[in-house]
């Protein structure tokens, strides 16, 4: 019903955001912290923020998400949250005994100007941090950036907390995967292992946010990058950072702190981005691309050849995070599909430039916008003006899909109403096969549903 109020004429908006195509910085910080073994995320702000961030992650991953909060009330909001945070640190180490606490701020603690490094030093001076335990932190004001900015900031916090210069280990490599699903992280680790590359991935939410049901509640699941591994990242020969928005900052910091050179690669979604990633792995490590991966690439090519007629010329609207949208758009153009409308709520003008470069190679001129006004309302307006055949994005697209009868593939964050994303990757060649399956099923289900009796085919 809400969608009936969307105006077809697109007006330039300077300040108003309607249905943002992004979420809150601390959600990203919390997700990154959950990828460290034995780490408890801590939200320095009011309880409401923390409850929202936890529930967003729980609804997407269908896993319990543990996190502490400084529980600001009126007093802390006026006089600062130092006493609350010091007390929280003491309580958390005493009661829950994590290895690490990862503190992130919220709009409120940022606005009143709480100084996290100073407060954490105070807690250390007061003996609230037990021997061998650690506190890392990130500043995550949600009135700028997005959940991706928060993720990136916390990954930098991990580097600040752990990385130190060390004697280089020539066959050790770091991988910063960016904000991808736990299934994607597991797939990237498989690719590294198939390529015989010894690597440390951080953060790593595989086995944490897609943990098995064992009948026992584990407060700190077995997965996640260990502190021991994190302290070796400064000795690695090279860092592969996947995605400029989520991973480049940490790779850059690691290079400054511990002189670890780095490459920034696109997240390996689709054929070309995976090709480039593998070639970069091969170039840096000196290892050959394995025949197992070549076999998988051949399977992707086979599916494309078999099913190209269902994909050719189909217009697609997509929204999500810049690091994922760039290789996804490229994959669509490789399939001879037409990315028509693309928005991300995460700021960074380089996004629009990159998308235009990819599309212009195929003579496509999409509508593309990033930042606060690149919202779902604008996306709806664009689709009203130029209809599409397929939607790809997070759960918030389901209203448009239903209202306009457009096939819909759920991809990105958050996905609140389907499962699968945590278990089946969309990165690498295997991920490309999964994306093809999802897109073809969505398109072909509609064909079947709407085919006249005489055109309803058994074999397609
Ligand atoms: S936008 Fe700010 S106030 Fe709102 S939930 Fe996020 S951190 Fe809290």
Topology:
Blueprint: H1 25-34, E1 39-44, H2 47-61, E2 68-69, H3 74-79, H4 82-95, E3 100-105, H5 107-111, H6 116-125, E4 134-138, H7 147-162, E5 169-176, H8 182-194, E6 199-201, H9 227-230, E7 236-242, H10 244-258, E8 262-265, H11 271-285, H12 291-311, E9 315-319, H13 322-334, E10 338-344, H14 350-360, E11 367-370, H15 376-385, E12 390-393, H16 398-404, E13 408-410, H17 428-450
Helix pairs in contact: 1-2, 1-7, 4-6, 7-10, 12-17, 13-14
Bound molecules: iron/sulfur cluster.
CATH architecture of the largest domain: 3-Layer(aba) Sandwich
Q: How does the overall form come out from the CA principal axes?
A: globular
- Taking the alpha carbons of the first and last residues, their distance comes to 36 Å
Number of strands: 13
Low-confidence stretches: none
Characterize the biggest β-sheet. 5 strands, parallel
In N-to-C order, the SSE pattern is HEHEHHEHHEHEHEHEHEHHEHEHEHEHEH
- The CATH superfamily label of the largest domain reads Nitrogenase molybdenum iron protein domain
Content-based structural category: alpha/beta
Report Rg.
23 Å
- Helix share bin: 40-55%
* Beta-strand content bin: 5-15%
In CATH, what is the class of the largest domain? Answer: Alpha Beta
CATH topology value of the largest domain: Rossmann fold
Mean pLDDT: 97
Sheet with the most strands: spatial strand order = 11-10-9-12-13
Total discrete domains: 3
Bound molecules: iron/sulfur cluster
Total count of helical runs of at least 4 residues: 17
Summary of the model, kept short:
With 460 residues, the protein is α/β, with parallel strands linked by helices. It is built from 17 helices and 13 strands. The chain folds into 3 domains: 25-162, Rossmann fold (3-Layer(aba) Sandwich), CATH 3.40.50; 169-285, 3-Layer(aba) Sandwich (Rossmann fold); 291-454, Nitrogenase molybdenum iron protein domain (Rossmann fold), CATH 3.40.50.
